[in-house]
Amino acid sequence: MATGRVAPASVPGTPLLKDELDIVIPAIRSLDFLETWRPFFQHYHLIIVQDGDPSRAIRVPEGFEYELYNRNDVKRILGPRAACISFKDSACRSFGYLVSKKKYVFTIDDDCFVAKDPSGKEINALEQHIKNLLSSSTPFFFNTLYDPYREGADFVRGYPFSLREGVPTAVSHGLWLNIPDYDAPTQLVKPLGRNNRYVDAVLTIPKGSLFPMCGINLAFNRELIGPAMFFGPLGDGELIGRYDDMWAGWCTKVICDHMGWGVKTGLPYIWRNKAINPFLNLKKECNGVYWLEELIPFFQCVTLPKECTTVQKCYIEISKQVKAKLGKLDPYFNKLAEAMVTWIEVWDELNPPTNAPSGPVKGK
Amino acid sequence: MHLFNVQKTLHAGKLTEKILKLFMATGNENILSLIQSLNIQHILLPVLPTKNMSVEIKDNEVDIVITALQPDLTSFMEDWRPIISQFHIIIVKEPGLEEDLQIPQGFDHQIYTGSDIQRIAGHTSITFSGHSCCYIGYLVSQKKYVISIDSDCLPARDKNGCVVDAVAQHIANLQTPATPFFFNTLYDPYRTGADFVRGYPFSLRTGVQCVLSCGLWLNLADYDAPTQAVKPNERNHRYVDAVLTVPARAMMPVSGINIAFDREIMGPTFFPGFRLPEEGKQRWESMEDIWCGLCAKVVGDHLGHGVKSGLPYVWRSASANRGDAFGSLKRGWEGVKLMEEVVPFFQSVRLPRTAVTAEECVFEIAKMVSERLGQSNAVFSKAAAAMIEWVKLWKTVNSQQA
Questions:
Q1: What ipTM was estimated for this complex?
Q2: In this structure, which CATH number among 3.90.550, 1.10.101, 2.60.40, 1.10.510 belongs to the domain B59-401?
Q3: What Pfam families would the database entry show (chain B) (predicted)?
Q4: Rounded Cα–Cα distance for residues A288 and A276 (Å)
Q5: Which of B26, B185, B293 sits opposite A173 (nearest CB)?
Q6: Which residue of B has its CA nearest to A269?
Q7: What is the C-alpha to C-alpha distance for residues A196 and B159, in angstroms, rounded to an integer?
Q8: Contact A160 B203 (CB under 8 A)
Q9: Hey, is the C-beta of A327 within 8 angstroms of any chain B C-beta?
Q10: Measured between beta carbons, which residues in chain B are less than 8 angstroms from residue A181?
Q11: Tell me, what DSSP letter sits at residue A280?
């Protein structure tokens, strides 16, 4: 693991939550994309988790304060339990969530760049995520004018006043312009499909409704929902490839619904540039597409008992149901359920419920 | 997993394909032989090429319903002419309006006045005053689809300055499937330039029929009296370029200002049942459309249909702001207070499997309203009674038309 030093730079306005938010980046290709984000990210601490071959050197652009972990660091810190952290398909970012000491996490892929809104202005995605997380959610009744807390909006006629205070927002799910997050079959059919539609909305996904959570442009309240953000061993080579973020999303939504927290989706947009290989993706995904038909009904039926009063307890309960119901369908799910339990053990160990700072020592 | 559970599930009528698979997956010999002895079989679904639930809507299947709260409809109809002139139009004159309506030439239309309303529904206790006279229009329409826009609304312009054809957009919303069982983060996947995202189950991509399209409003948004009073100058300038399906079991406030629906399927769910004692002619003084929308959503969810919200926008003009929000407030917070009971009630409604039409569903909801809410406020018992009368009236009028 390596740490960098911050270089003096001009401040483009007052950054929000700079001491309360970590930016977690799974480094798969290179980190050159950080140059475009510099004005927005430079005051935040980065946690970079290097995917793939640990002997490959990853260059971090000058002027960012960061920690960098590779597979060797993960093994050193977690020991035999390191197996629960997948180093395929950017699921390694979960390790970043694990070791962060901040209240909020923003995660972004290294093929994502700053987008522009319809007026041509560059979008500060991080600022929008922060706005989303700091304002309430409204999962119990759908507001037809979308996020009522945005300037220029409000609750519409008929919206019960008792629900207008909203609930804490646990997750802010952003979207993508240019290359949309389609699955492999759709990419094959629509190789030139681009998302050019800027939808100027943030909205709360209603309670009881599941959604496909994409990890490319995502922020969450780590103190609330961190333990559920396990992008598990669902990567390349596993039974279900390219669905690590989806798995975390379904667990997260079920738990948020149970705990009475909100999940928002919509703004901000980032600009996604990615060389798509739909044939390669199809090979990785075909199992996932098949298993999705079992997984969605499974998550739609998950019920969490009243005794599950913490996210960890909810997560362990889900892992039991995974083992009981999905384990019968394929032994892979037993392995996944065990990884979920290991994750919680590791989470609790690295994040004991005290105010005193603890965890592995940073720096070499 | 015990044999007992299988039997219990059977008796409760809860055995579905999914649950059957789970039982069988246990490998429990007793369960497997029970299933075999009862001759319970998988339903084999033929593998078909992906065909979604799109329908084609022709102009002659649509009625545009307009309520006339003031006599001169000239400028309203001229502004909408390019958009509505090819459709049949039902104009319902507010019963209290005495002057003759002024309607420009060149529209295929029918007018219903107070005496028509009296003839059709005078024998019921249902009141059709104010905006509620639109329901007569829904009742007498003989078309499959109804589109209704308040007469103080004009065509809006989108972000490029182009006039929004609200009727065409509503038709597009009703024509393409809805996707209520799983949320698509790129909103309506059937719009050009959009699709289902990664992680969206393929079995849910055919969607279900969309039976209700709820549009929005630029300029004056549909706020209630307290919000209007606090923010009298707020205007909605945000054009959100999205249509989305409101997920199953999520409740929402449906505004009657800009709405379209499949009348054949959902007609009985739109009625003036929920009337506030001090209700006036301003939208912010009424909740009957909110009540209908909650019924419609519950019924739609139960029948397996979808509801969309978002585009099209209409431009709600300043004339919609006539009247005094503070005055309305003083007359009572009744509607606002009552919503506190109304929403939890609708969230808890579970319709029996035997209710397979909208009429049957509305009838069941009326019974529940009477039992669970009737005691707390007379508004509810009147609403329940109106719902039952409406279902009977609907059946009568529709059988006469058939």
A1: 0.90
A2: 3.90.550
A3: RGP (PF03214)
A4: 18
A5: B185
A6: B186
A7: 14
A8: no
A9: no
A10: 197-198
A11: H
